[in-house]
Amino acid sequence: MRPWGEGPESARELLPYVDDVSLVDLVSDFEHATGHDVPGAYAGIILDFFNFGDLASYLTGRPDSPYWAKRGVVALLGCDCGEVGCWPLEAHVVTDGDLVTWRGFIQPYRPGRDYEGFGPFVFHQHQYQRAVREAVTATSRSQ
Q1: How far is CA 127 from CA 10, 68, 100, in A?
Q2: d(CA 75, CA 82)
Q3: Which residue of 56, 102, 121, 137 is most buried, as measured by CB atoms within 10 A?
């Protein structure tokens, strides 16, 4: 969790990391390397601008999350303007046994883009659940 914007009115940004590298940096490098137009124009999820419902449900891809219920995926990143609906990076969050996987990445405004070589990112479930709990705790503390 980090501040989005400046001053006392700043919002809260939830930016995912994989092996200590932000997902923004990972997807930006991939999009640049594959020659996509508008590469890397992402930011984390700006929690104060986005109705994600229950954060734990959302981050685990449970179908009771409003975004997931509509799209079948979650936006792991939003646009660098702060609006998820403007330019999201979406993926399936799949739990299978002791693993949680982000896979099937899509950019809905560029349906022709191929993210086949991006990910999947696999996490041990106990580590993923700990990160989700930390995000939920940080969110409730900073409200």
Answers
A1: 29, 22, 9
A2: 13
A3: 102
The residue ranges of DSSP E strands in the chain, in sequence order, are 2-4, 11-14, 17-18, 21-22, 42-43, 45-46, 74-79, 89-96, 99-106, 121-124
CA distance 140 to 31: 34
Task: Return the half-sphere exposure (C-beta side, CA atoms, 13 A cut-off) of residue 48.
Answer: 12
What's the confidence (pLDDT) of residue 72? Answer: 76
Q: In terms of C-beta density within 10 A (0-12 exposed, 13-18 middle, 19 or more buried), how is residue 110 classed?
A: middle
Mention every residue, 6+ apart, whose C-beta is less than 8 A from residue 82: 4, 5, 11, 43, 46, 49
Instruction: Give me the pLDDT at residue 51, please.
Output: 74
CA separation for the pair 8, 54 (Å, rounded): 25
Per-residue model confidence (pLDDT) at position 137: 85
Q: Which of 11, 10, 13 is nearest to 2 (CA)?
A: 13
Low-confidence ranges of the chain (pLDDT < 70): 1-9, 65-69, 141-143
* pLDDT tens digits for range 86-105: 899 999 999 999 999 999 99
